Each structure stands twice: as C-alpha cells, then as structure tokens.
Amino acid sequence: MKKVKQILALIGVILLVALYFTTLILAITDNSGTMNMFFASVVATIIIPVLIWAYTLIYRLTRGNKHSDEKSTDSGEEK
Questions:
Q1: How confident is the model at residue 69 (pLDDT cuts 50, 70, 90)?
Q2: What is the 3-state secondary structure (H, E, C) of the chain?
Q3: Can you give the residue ranges of every domain in the chain?
Q4: Is this prediction's pTM over 0.70?
Q5: Would you state the pLDDT for residue 71?
Q6: Number of neighbouring beta carbons within 10 Å of residue 19
Q7: 5, 12, 16, 11: which is closest to 46 by C-alpha?
C-alpha cells in the first residue's frame, strides 16, 4: 500500500508541475484562445490540490473510524 501511495503522490506532483508549466507558457503566448486556456489552467492548479486534500481527509476519517472501533472492541474483549 505504501508503494501505491508513493506512486500516486509522484503522479500528483508531475501533474501539478505540468499545470504550472502550462500556465506559464499560456501566460506568455498570445493567441485568440489562450486566455480561456490560461484561466482553465489556473483553476485546475487550484482545484486539483484541494480535491486531493479533501479525498485524503475523507479517506483518513472513514478509515480512522473503522480502526478505532476495532481497537476499542479488541481492548474491551481482553478485559
């Protein structure tokens, strides 16, 4: 599971670097559709990390509750 998390984190970092690079290139170039692509890139640069954070928070909260319930029932049975 640790390898999967590391691979997903690396993919996230690569995606964000690509978005930052794309935003920079779109800010420099002058084209008729560049402004729309620039705004989309800026929005994606903000929303993707927020969504990743929210998904990991929800995952930890749901997994944490299951593990804490198991620990509390295990400790209660040993007494």
A1: very low
A2: CHHHHHHHHHHHHHHHHHHHHHHHHHHHCCCCCHHHHHHHHHHHHHHHHHHHHHHHHHHHHHHHHHHHHHHHHHHHHHC
A3: 2-78
A4: no
A5: 52
A6: 19
A7: 16
Task: Kindly tell me if the per-residue pLDDT of 6 is higher than 50.
Answer: yes
CA–CA separation, 24 and 34 (whole Å):
11
What's the N-to-C CA distance of the chain in angstroms?
A: 32
Residues 6+ positions from 12 with CB-CB distance below 8 Å? 48, 52
Query: CA nearest 38: which of 25, 50, 57?
Result: 25
